[in-house]
Amino acid sequence: MDIGWTATPEQIIYYFIRMHVSDFDKRTDVSCNSVVSRMLQKIWTRLFNPKPAQGPQFANPRVLSETAIVDHPCSFGYKCNWLAVRTTDTDRLASIFRLTNATPYNWENGVARGYDGHFFISPPIDGWSFIVSRSLPYAEDDDKIVVLKEILSELSLEFGEAQYFGTYRVVGFDCWMKAGNGILERAYAVVDGGNTIVEGEPTPVETGFRLLNTLSEEADTDPEYFEKMQFPDESMTMEVAGAWSIDPQSLDGRNDLAPRLGWVGGWGK
Question: pTM for the full model?
Answer without folding.
Answer: 0.76
